[in-house]
Amino acid sequence: MGRRIRVRGQVQGVGFRPFVWQLARRFGLTGWVRNDAEGVLIEVSALSEGFEAALRAEAPPLARVDRIEASDVIAAPCAGFEIRASGAPGAETRVAPDAATCPACVEEIFGTGRRHGYAFTNCTHCGPRFTILTRLPYDRAQTTMAAFDLCPACAAEYGDPADRRFHAQPIACPDCGPRLWCEGAEGGGAIEAAAALLRAGGTVAIKGLGGFHLACDATDPAAIAQLRSRKHRPAKPFALMAPLEILLRHAAPSEAEIALLKDPAAPIVLLAKTPGLPEALAPGQATLGWMLPYTPLHHLLLAAVGRPLVMTSGNLSGEPQVIGNAEAREKLAGFADAFLMHDREIARRLDDSVERITPHGPMVLRRARGRVPATLPLPAGLPDRQVTGYGGQMKAALCLSKNGQLLLGHHLGELNEALTWEAFLQADRDYAALFDHTPEAVACDLHPGFRATQHAEGRGLPVIPVQHHHAHLAACLGENLWPADGGKVAGIVLDGLGLGPDGTLWGGEILLGDYHGFTRAAHLAPAPLVGGDAAQAEPWRNALVRLDAAGLAELADRLFPEAPRALLRRAAATGMNAPLSSSAGRLFDAVAAILGLYPARQSFEGEAAMRLEALAGPPEPGYPMGTGTQIDPAPLFQTLCRDHAAGLPPATLSARFHAGLAEAFATRARTLVETGAARAVALTGGCFQNARLLDEVLTRLQGVPVLIHRATPANDGSLALGQVLIALAQLEST
Ligand SMILES: [Zn+2]
Ligand SMILES: [Zn+2]
């Protein structure tokens, strides 16, 4: 009796078939393995429990085995064990995310073999994937490596199931693969020339996996200042790259943080700042974003420089990252003194992912390179149908459902920017073509002004509009595989802004609901958002209206003597360009402004709130907030201002603010669970990127089942996911 074994998960393009081949030989089994639309299919001549256990236990580093199903079959006799071609054309439907250079390849580039010093070394366990893919199935001819013919040595490795490079589609060597050069710097090889310039304080544009970076010496304040002034980027934190041994001289990551840094996804990981590096890298922030070198090019360059490098995205202000050589020369010439580039095209722009480790596990802030196009399983009870979710306006990303999987696409950015909008439209076509996706309906935000909403309405398909914070709640439920009939959850949604069904802007909510619907159980008392968008950029505007509402108008006059207060108050009174908003994000802005952290304009979204988090001292009892379903922050502001006047340190005030906000929402959510109205609490919305707030809320929810984001962002980057889940729930009931 033989066995037929189905392996599901991320098992294509990751060396799974040669792994099975080697395993079968080890266990003395005959039979075959092949890829098909559902994953990997194996037939072996006999039952071997050891073999089946090893499929999961010893799977290759980039594989993710979701499920193994095995049944007895009468196996056709085979002489040996063979790797068969895929079934029907188009059967291979998966591609893995891009993966950081594996230890074996790093050893090779620093060794003496034929790939010594070769910047494009890769194997089945590492290298570019999604960023070079032009079409599925994932095969060299359908990647940007198609232009490079294999030399005999590479061809032999490619064809040998015992080799680490068996069917490694981007396989390359100095004889046959892409070439590296440096424009604008003289002397030695490309790496040496770029390294010398970096050590001398210059800025180099570097072509990476998903786009160009701008790099400079992270230990050199003058180099950093020069890059900041050239990029007109006064304060937004720069990410850094260094090999682990150099990183450890400048940061003290925990074991979990080191594991995340070394993950094949190689995300930027936010690590607590330690003294030593220039403050200008991330002014006023408590953390610095670090990543390890993730391509051979990075490894070689970092080894030659011997210092940590700033690696910030190579783009014009507000625009997406540059990916083409010609585009880089044109757009980055004003920033970079030299260009380190190569002739392997980038098929798809992917920013670096940004993540952090909190006491409660990993947290994703930006989901892109290394994480996409990995899928999430569809929660039980939702129909397996094809829907596209178009997300929101900020931190745009798409989501597709198909074959029981949810594909949350990569971070695109802010859709008001023309080129990002173009990238959004391209991503829509791209994902649909790649995954042969033909949606029967599309989902989008309620906000009619969002470009993604307008795009959804123009598709000529049934449109399912979804309230912004309901989508946040559903995304959190979906990531946690909350079943469709799992019952209602109390969603604490602390966020920037989203349009509510009542026409006001929401953002500090407790929603009681699930995929099928919701009610607004409690919310922050609204305040006018005077000047609309201006209120987002200028925290003092939020402080003024909150102080006025708390009977502290005189204090507001003293705190903001230069501001056009009368104008603002008139607008607030008449409601002219002053929509009401219950946003929690704006509450953070208001407090930051009162503490003098941000009297004028923020230079990027969330800046004031991030500073407030960075400032928070040891835990304190929280400031009081009103009782009832309208959570009135007036008592909070009154107490905070008293403390402020008494000269208490801002660290204490920030700690008390975080605790007070957490207390108000956690108490109400806990009550909903304890009275049986909700089965669990879900924490979602952009404010939950704040690890302090997350911790304060979780502390107050001990003993209650709580769902949080770990693999998807709590911010608007997950809206599309929530929209798709809600749309599926609606389709099911029609
Ligand atoms: Zn490798
Ligand atoms: Zn070769």
Automatic annotation (TrEMBL):
Q: Spell out the reaction equation it catalyses.
A: C-terminal L-cysteinyl-[HypE protein] + carbamoyl phosphate + ATP + H2O = C-terminal S-carboxamide-L-cysteinyl-[HypE protein] + AMP + phosphate + diphosphate + H(+); an acyl phosphate + H2O = a carboxylate + phosphate + H(+)
Q: Which Gene3D superfamilies match?
A: 3.30.110.120, 3.30.420.360, 3.30.420.40, 3.90.870.50
What are the positions of the active site? 17, 35
Which residues are in the Acylphosphatase-like domain?
Answer: 2-85
- Molecular function terms, GO-annotated: acylphosphatase activity; carboxyl- or carbamoyltransferase activity; double-stranded RNA binding; ligase activity; zinc ion binding
Which GO annotations describe the biological process of this protein?
protein maturation
Q: In which pathway does it act?
A: Protein modification; [NiFe] hydrogenase maturation
Q: Which UniProt keywords apply?
A: Hydrolase, Ligase, Metal-binding, Transferase, Zinc, Zinc-finger
EC numbers for this chain = 6.2.-.-
Q: Which class of enzymes does this protein belong to?
A: ligase
UniProt cross-references to Pfam families, sorted A to Z: Acylphosphatase, HypF_C, HypF_C_2, Sua5_yciO_yrdC, zf-HYPF
Name all YrdC-like domain ranges.
188-370
NCBIfam families named among the record's database cross-references: hypF
Query: What family is this?
Result: Belongs to the carbamoyltransferase HypF family.
Q: What does this protein do?
A: Involved in the maturation of [NiFe] hydrogenases. Along with HypE, it catalyzes the synthesis of the CN ligands of the active site iron of [NiFe]-hydrogenases. HypF functions as a carbamoyl transferase using carbamoylphosphate as a substrate and transferring the carboxamido moiety in an ATP-dependent reaction to the thiolate of the C-terminal cysteine of HypE yielding a protein-S-carboxamide.
Name recorded for this polypeptide: Carbamoyltransferase HypF
Give me the gene this protein comes from.
hypF
